[in-house]
TrEMBL record:
Protein name (record): Bax inhibitor-1/YccA family protein
InterPro entries hit by this protein: BaxI_1-like
Coiled-coil regions, chain positions: none
Keywords: Membrane, Transmembrane, Transmembrane helix
Keyword Transcription on entry: no
Transmembrane segments: 61-82, 88-108, 115-139, 145-167, 179-201, 207-229, 250-272
Organism ancestry: Bacteria, Bacillati, Actinomycetota, Actinomycetes, Propionibacteriales
Length: 276
């Protein structure tokens, strides 16, 4: 599986001719190997998997993604309603940093940890809940702007999936490399800007001015491209018999991308509307 999104690359993914498709799988190009090109890929079979395991299905991905997003929503709602004013800033930063750190651990883990995925979702929910409440108050739109951002995220995701399937978009290694390099560069700029802001430097990248609008638009665009990588990763995993546990990796990847897309859309809506 060639991997995806803001979390850079999965350690269980590989480029054609390198490494293994899944932990325990036969090397690429040998009988039973799984990777792009389909060389020696028997359908619905996972080389080296325990006898009790079964291949991942699309239903597995849907259910686990729903569970992960459910945790994000639950903790977001709790943070929105119950975090006292004096704890808003520290919990907002703690949620953002914890989500980022856990995402990095999960991204480079060969074996996905479902419990850690849920902890990531909880931290992301705290970050989004506090951040969304701040933006809603800043614009004076209340929950309306959050509902708009959620609907826009769902519509964008649906249109991206329809485009991917209808036009049969082929995710080539070059396309993947370009998207991932752009994502890494964008993430690097955001992290550097965050660190610089702690020392009083304000570039406007994370703000609500023209520079903030530009970077929010770039972030939303990159999220759409990463959705395409996620859809391809899931499709390839189901097609080539990835183990059931990899559904958690797919759910994690989709959650990261959808959260990123929602946050940038929310910022775009807030900047266009302006603060009261």
């Amino acid at each position: 599986m060639q991997s995806s999104n803001p979390v850079l690359n999965r350690s269980s993914a590989f480029a054609p001719g390198q490494g293994q498709a899944y932990p325990g799988a036969a090397p690429y190009g040998q009988p039973g190997a799984y990777g792009y090109g389909g060389a020696g890929m028997p359908p619905n079979q996972y080389q080296g998997a325990p006898a009790a395991s079964r291949p991942m299905t699309m239903d597995d991905v849907i259910v686990k993604t729903a569970m992960t997003l459910g945790v994000v929503t639950l903790f977001g709602a709790l943070a929105w309603w119950f975090v006292p004013a004096r704890l808003v800033t520290p919990l907002f930063l703690a949620g953002a940093l914890a989500a980022f750190a856990i995402a990095m651990v999960l991204s480079f883990s060969r074996k996905i940890n479902p419990a850690l995925v849920m902890v990531y979702a909880a931290a992301e929910g705290i970050f989004l809940g506090i951040g969304s409440k701040f933006i809603a108050a800043w614009t004076g739109a209340g929950t309306g702007i959050v509902v708009q951002a959620v609907l826009a995220t769902l519509v964008t995701t649906g249109l991206t999936l329809a485009t991917y399937k209808y036009f049969q978009i082929k995710v080539t290694p070059r396309f993947t490399k370009m998207v991932m390099l752009a994502t890494m560069g964008f993430a690097g700029v955001i992290v550097i800007n965050l660190i610089a802001s702690l020392f009083g430097f304000n570039s406007g990248i994370g703000g609500f001015g023209p520079m903030g609008l530009l970077f929010a638009a770039i972030g939303a665009g990159l999220a759409v491209f990463n959705l395409i990588l996620d859809f391809d990763m899931i499709e390839q995993g189901v097609r080539h018999g990835a183990p059931q546990s990899e559904a958690w990796r797919a759910a994690f990847g989709l959650t990261v991308t959808l959260v990123w897309l929602y946050w940038n859309i929310l910022r775009i809506l807030a900047i266009l509307r302006g603060g009261d």
